[in-house]
Specification:
This is Peptidase M20 domain-containing protein 2. It comes from Desulfosporosinus nitroreducens. It holds the Pfam family M20_dimer. The chain has about 400 residues and is an alpha/beta fold. Helix content is about 40%, strand content about 20%. It is built from eleven helices and 14 strands. Helix 3 links the parallel strand 3 and strand 4. The radius of gyration is 24 Å and the shape is elongated. The two termini are about 40 Å apart.
Length: about 400
């Protein structure tokens, strides 16, 4: 380990208790998406205390923030992503209290260097568990001129390279005409019949898609009483695929299926996206390799092969805007299951404290490499440029 990284390691040890207290307090006071007032304030105050300029309530979201620290000389701009929303009932069953604290801690570690050239950002991103605020942050230009973005996520293995599925959330409404189901059935147009036709068509469509494409839906509204022909029926669907281009193509087929189902009973159909669309996660391999080397600097050599998460993450949209990584690091024994109370408990245990320390050190090392190694930065940018041309 060279002298500057040894310095960062020592800074991490010095900050360890303070950063852990931030993580512990956020974990002990779980807040749902867009209501993370305590968490957002805790992270912002910690960063302000260490010399960061913090803009709160960015991109029209009260609990989003942007913290900035400029080095003594111009240089690249890197961003650490902070998450801090919790799950209903369970609390921090995904360890977002650890994510936010580690990102803030890594940024503060870098700020202590008198050799820092460039700018370090911490971007507070609310509501990852629900609507995915990173989508809004990308659309509002918060990542403009950022050279690299990174975060970590607690998990069951050390996985520097991940991918995820692109996602569209679609709501379909079938519009019919109500009538007495027995006395005047001929005057009605049964929206629920259209919906049933739609589901039959979807089941046929599923037989044509590859294993990488997932189509899952539920009926949320199908009528009011058995003796009234339903004039309205509503369904919500999640469509997922490994690639955005492939998902776009299958989305059009699903919509045509809905249109055909409506026409079969002379109903009408409308649709809209009821949640943000997520792009697939594109891990920047050059940046991930740097992260892996820095894990080695910390004595971590058990590295899992690249994995595809069967879910979707809003970090995918960030990875289409700037070079990005979203590595997983092992929490506890690695046997804890995310989105459970047990996972939330471990995130507040000494295992959680140890993971925060490791994560903020490795993130700081990786951030330093990007800021100080122009050859690495150009390699990261070349790889990203090839992605944008796909």
């Amino acid at each position: 380990m060279d002298a500057i990284k040894a310095f960062f390691r020592d800074q991490a040890l010095h900050l360890r208790k303070e950063v852990w207290e931030v993580a512990r307090q956020i974990g002990a006071r779980p807040e749902l998406g867009y209501k993370e007032y305590f968490a957002s304030n805790s992270l912002s105050s910690f960063l302000q205390k260490h010399g960061f300029i913090v803009d709160r309530g960015i991109a029209g979201m009260e609990t989003a923030f942007l913290a900035r620290f400029k080095g003594l000389r111009p240089g690249p701009r890197i961003a650490y992503l902070a998450e801090y929303d919790a799950l209903p009932v369970i609390g921090h069953g995904c360890g977002h209290n650890l994510i936010g604290a580690a990102s803030a801690g890594a940024a503060v570690i870098l700020s202590k260097s008198l050799e820092l050239a460039g700018e370090v950002l911490v971007i507070g991103a609310p509501a990852e568990e629900t609507s995915g605020a990173k989508v809004t942050l990308v659309e509002k230009g918060i990542f403009k001129d950022v050279d690299a973005a990174m975060m970590f996520h607690p998990g069951s293995q050390n996985v520097p390279v991940i991918s995820s599925l692109a996602l569209d959330a679609l709501e379909f409404t079938f519009h019919g005409r109500s009538a007495h189901a027995v006395a005047a059935s001929g005057f009605g147009i049964n929206a629920l019949d259209a919906m049933i036709n739609f589901f039959v068509g979807i089941n046929a469509l599923k037989k044509q898609v590859s294993q990488d494409v997932k189509i899952n839906g539920i009926i949320t509204e199908g009528g009011t009483a058995p003796n009234i022909i339903p004039e309205r029926a509503v369904a919500q669907f999640y469509l997922r695929a490994r690639k955005r281009k492939e998902l776009d193509e299958w989305r059009e087929q699903v919509i045509r299926c809905a249109e055909g189902a409506a026409s079969m009973v002379s109903a009408k159909m409308t649709w809209h996206k009821f949640e943000f669309s997520y792009d697939e996660m594109h891990t920047n391999l050059s940046l991930a390799e740097c992260f892996t080397r820095n894990l080695g600097e910390m004595g971590i050599h058990q590295i899992a092969s690249p994995q595809t998460a069967m879910g979707s993450v809003d970090m995918g949209n960030v990875s289409r805007a700037v070079p990005a990584i979203h590595p997983y690091l092992t929490l506890g024994t690695g046997t804890e299951i995310p989105h459970t109370r047990n996972f939330a408990q471990v995130s507040l245990s000494p295992d959680g404290e140890r993971l925060v320390l490791l994560a903020m050190q490795v993130l700081a090392f990786t951030g330093w490499d990007v800021l100080s190694n122009n050859k690495l930065l150009q390699q990261i940018k070349r790889e990203f440029l090839l992605l944008t041309k796909e």
